[in-house]
Amino acid sequence: MPGLRNAELGAFLRSRRPEGLRLEDVARSAGFSLDYYTRIERGEVDYFADAVLDSIARALELDEPDRLHLLRLARPRTAEQRMVDEQEPVRDSLRLLVEGNTGQSVLLIGRYGDLLAANRLGHALLGLIPGEQVNLARLMFLEPATKDLLINWEQEAVSAAARLRVAASVDPGDPELAALIRDLCVKSDDFARIWAGHPVADEAGTVLEYRHPAAGHVTLYCETLALPGDPGKTLVIGTAEPGSPSAGRLRELG
């Protein structure tokens, strides 16, 4: 849907134009006419040559995550590509890898933020029963208990919104994803606030601080890994520092 894609691209560029920087300043820096760049920000331009995208990124001084997001918005997946992997089955070997890990928290997350698989510790840290499947974005923004559970909730909420923003740039016409985002915007003021800021940088490595009702204060060092053979899926592995109080609490929880 070019209209949706172009509107999103225009909104993203407006969000990245520093306060006080005029349209004509950006156009001049990029080497465009004022009329052409104005139409880009209004979402009225359908095709972008690579040189045009490079000029925009340079004029707005976009960092690498923002530059990549601009490219995703301008080069969304085709309908044929979406049909190939619109389902998110979990291979048996991958499920065994996730569920068989006993010393770390392991989550397998789908493109919409669905929890596709997790091990016992992963479920326990989130307050879920083994085997329970939820949407982690809904859990983050619509379950008040999650704010109490995560000490650094705001940081993780921004990351959750950023993952959805990236997914939306890849599949701007995906009705299921669009419905999820609309629902979160309506039901969560926090999500609407964060979403309006167009977050796109999702840290691969982060530190999660839990205030767990059963285990107490738990600190996890987490890495998010993309799976080349499973587009859209990510593996999130969290581990406590060996010998730390958090490591002992994890053992008790598991």
TrEMBL record:
Tree of life domain: Bacteria
InterPro entries per record: Cro/C1-type_HTH, Lambda_DNA-bd_dom_sf, MLTR_LBD
Residue span(s) of domain HTH cro/C1-type: 20-68
Transmembrane segments: none
CDD domains referenced in this protein's UniProt entry, alphabetically: HTH_XRE
Pfam families: HTH_31, MLTR_LBD
Gene Ontology MF term list: DNA binding
Name of the protein in its database record: Helix-turn-helix protein
Organism whose genome encodes this protein: Actinoplanes italicus
High-level lineage: Bacteria, Bacillati, Actinomycetota, Actinomycetes, Micromonosporales
